[in-house]
Amino acid sequence: IYSYLYVLPRGALRKELVRCLRYHHINRRIHGKSRQKSCPIQDYISIEERPAEIADRIIPGHWEGDLLMGHNNGSALGTLVERTTRMTFLVQLKDKDATTVRETFAKEFKHLPKGLKRSLTYDQGQEMAEHKLFTKTTQIQVYFAHPHSPWERGTNENTNALIRQFFPKGTDFSKVSLKNIKQAQDMLNDRPRKTLGFLTPHEVFSKLLH
Length: 210
Prior knowledge:
By secondary structure, this protein is an alpha/beta fold. The longest helix is centred in the middle third of the chain and has 12 residues, at 98-109. It has helices at residues 15-20, 52-55, 98-109, 131-138, 154-163, 178-189, 201-209; strands spanning 30-31, 44-46, 62-69, 76-82, 88-92, 119-122, 141-144. It has one domain (28-209): Nucleotidyltransferase, domain 5 (2-Layer Sandwich), CATH 3.30.420.10. A hairpin with a 5-residue loop joins β4 (76-82) and β5. Pfam families: rve (PF00665).
């Protein structure tokens, strides 16, 4: 995966940052206990503690996640987007409670190699309340964005707008078949992207798997 950094269509990488990738560590501060009144998530790691290489999209395997809400917030579709390749997983959810989301997201990541499941950046929605158990199960570190700051998960927010082309606001996701969800996923991942040198997310992601 490290060698693949040099063929991604993103121009010259900063040598000093690449040199530090294997050795850079940060002291993580655990948040949440002092914010119990304002945030339902306890013992979380803030996006402020996220390593620089994640923000710069240099190393693949860092994801952003969200729920796309259905009609009257009664149903939801899980969305997971890899920051470097824009590979997108659309996740059918039977419910949007924390246990269902944790188990279903973990299952979605299960088939990926370790190098492609490094971190997940999420908002402070209650559905990620079991983040510590999710990390224990998957070894994927979860970072939490600031409240009301969708730009901190810009890749996911932009992708959600594309997903709405298939599932407009008001969609009842409990009535959408898994087949239709995966068809939409395939169409998203087979769409050439300018930021990828007009390759598709599927093409770039597949090169990381082989």
